[in-house]
Specification:
Elements: E1 2-5, E2 9-15, E3 30-36, H1 38-48, E4 53-60, H2 63-74, E5 82-85, E6 91-98, E7 101-107, H3 116-121, E8 131-135, H4 140-152, E9 157-160, H5 169-174, E10 177-178, H6 182-189, H7 194-198, E11 206-207, E12 213-216, E13 221-224, H8 237-250, H9 255-269, H10 282-290
Parallel strand pairs: 1-4, 1-8, 2-6, 4-5, 8-9, 9-10
Antiparallel strand pairs: 2-3, 6-7, 11-12, 12-13
Bound molecules: alpha-D-ribofuranose.
């Protein structure tokens, strides 16, 4: 079982030709709502690939919360440990897609109600997990409690330090794997270089967008290349990488193969609009791995 602890949002997505500057009003091209949130995205990515996934998070007692619960259930994800907070709204992310990239503002709402004491309640499922995945869109003290319990029960834990601002040295030390993108790596470790990769062998895996990902295997820096693809929307590509990486490691893949598998999954995810719409099945990833272009 893979346990994902993290955020769940409704993504409010606007497509426009360009972003408005301060004080400007623009007419956009389209508006859509999609299930999102880094935690729920990573849970769906792992479940689509065939993982048995348990999601731990928090939503509000509102229509977005209800829609997101139904969606997670439809994806075959266990939500027995999803909390419902009647005092907070479900998390939302306002996403502008323009000029080939996204800009996101997240209002955490009920995601910040997920407390360390709630994690104590899920203590029973953590030791049964073959992999725990956690990100930083929930309270840092909650993430710390997850990492402490995983360390105590010797359960491998993948920390995706996004957003990077609340990542602490203690979190890094307690994680089994840490997966910043290049910008997050610079924010957390003060730079991105082979020397920095070498400080955490087989643990620090830096994602590099279309260029793939890199880590140090104890002997050399391994660059695992990405896949050429037609990009529609990059939202959720990092989450697909993390869900797929956690899935592949928990299935017993060696790290290089797991990273290659995760790169292929992420490359498929960007071909559709919305964070989760393009997330692939196991067979989709196998085909992409077999037909490298
Ligand atoms: O990583 C992408 C996600 O970030 C979006 O789905 C949005 O909800 C924000 O949490």
């Amino acid at each position: 079982m893979i346990t994902v602890v993290g955020s769940v949002n409704m993504d409010l997505v606007v497509e426009a030709v360009k972003r408005p500057v301060q004080g400007e009003t623009l007419l956009g091209n389209s508006f859509s709502t999609f299930p999102g949130g880094k935690g729920s995205n990573q849970a769906v990515a792992a479940a689509r690939l065939g993982g048995n996934v348990n999601f731990v998070g928090s939503v509000g007692l509102d229509s977005f919360g209800e829609d997101l619960q139904n969606h997670l259930l439809k994806e075959g994800i266990c939500i027995d440990y999803l909390d419902i907070d009647n005092a907070q709204s479900t998390g939302v992310a306002t996403i502008i897609l323009a000029e080939g990239d996204n800009s996101i503002i997240v209002v955490p709402g009920a995601n910040f109600s997920l407390s360390p004491s709630h994690i104590q309640k899920v203590n029973e499922v953590l030791p049964k997990s073959s992999m725990v995945i956690v990100q930083l869109e929930i309270l840092p003290e909650t993430v710390e409690r997850v990492l402490e319990l995983c360390q105590k029960h010797k359960v491998p834990v993948l920390l995706n330090p996004a957003p990077a601002a609340s990542c602490t040295k203690e979190m890094i030390e307690m994680a089994t794997y840490i997966t910043p993108n290049e910008t997050e790596c610079i924010e957390i470790f003060g730079g991105y270089s082979d020397e920095i990769l070498k400080t955490y062998p087989n643990k620090l895996i830096v994602t590099l967008g279309a260029a793939g990902a890199a880590y140090y295997d104890g002997t050399e820096v391994v660059q695992v290349s990405g896949y050429k693809t037609s990009v529609v929307d990059t939202t959720g590509a990092g989450d697909t990488f993390n869900g797929a990486l956690g899935f592949a490691i928990s299935e017993g893949y060696a790290l290089r193969e797991a990273v290659q598998f995760a790169n292929a999954a992420a490359s498929l995810s960007v071909e559709k609009l919305g964070a989760q719409q393009g997330m692939p099945s196991f067979d989709d990833v196998r085909n992409r791995l077999a037909n490298r272009n």
